[in-house]
Design brief:
Blueprint (H helix, E strand, L loop, with lengths): L7 H13 L4 H14 L21 H11 L5 H6 L1 H7 L10 H11 L14 E2 L2 E2 L6 H4 L9 H15 L9 H15 L3
Antiparallel strand pairs: 1-2
Length: 191
């Protein structure tokens, strides 16, 4: 765009601004030209950033396939006959494999965190997992099972105890504290 001749009012203001600042007259003149060239243009529309989609829950078929693969069987019928499966689930009460909830329970116990339950928040959720759904003390304590020492476990437990101990009036929770204590004992073998 061609340069516009600045009127006397603008030239006087540039002179005044130059005298009170450490900027040159050419910098103010360049800015004035920019304003004249762009003052009627509309602001660009902001780009809308869509939040990432929450992971979908696994279907019943996907859950069954994952569990069968874990126990190295071809289908649910063979799974129920498997001695390894029977032994692994003998202490699991209320295991109903006619519903997805039963398969989800198995997935949580033997495979990993369900995709739609990763990074959960809310009651009982510590370091992204619900400690009442998952037996994952290492993850709840935020520790690496291969590199953490007994002192690391103790320190993590004490840090969480400062938050969840029932005597802590604002954040204390006996149910969560008891679960964390079970996790601590399971990691330090103090039963």
């Amino acid at each position: 765009m061609p340069q516009v001749t600045l009127n006397k009012l603008l030239q006087d203001e540039i002179t005044r601004l130059t005298e009170i600042s450490n900027l040159s007259a050419s910098a103010f003149e360049e800015f004035a030209q920019f304003v004249i060239a762009n003052y009627k243009k509309k602001d660009p529309k902001p780009k809308v950033v869509k939040p990432p989609k929450a992971p979908k829950a696994l279907t019943g078929a996907q859950l069954k396939e994952a569990i069968c693969t874990h126990f190295d069987v071809k289908d649910a019928k063979e799974l129920k006959k498997s001695s390894g499966f029977q032994l692994a689930t003998s202490s699991m009460e209320n295991l109903d494999l006619r519903k997805n909830a039963g398969w989800e329970m198995l997935y949580r116990k033997f495979i990993d965190v369900l995709p739609n339950e990763a990074n959960e928040e809310g009651h009982g959720c510590i370091n992204g997992i619900n400690i009442f759904k998952y037996d994952m003390p290492w993850r709840a304590f935020g520790l690496d099972p291969k590199a953490s020492t007994t002192e690391d476990i103790k320190s993590a437990y004490h840090q969480l105890s400062k938050i969840y101990h029932p005597d802590k009036s604002s954040t204390g929770n006996a149910e969560i504290f008891d679960r964390l204590t079970v996790f601590y004992k399971s990691l330090t073998h103090k039963f």
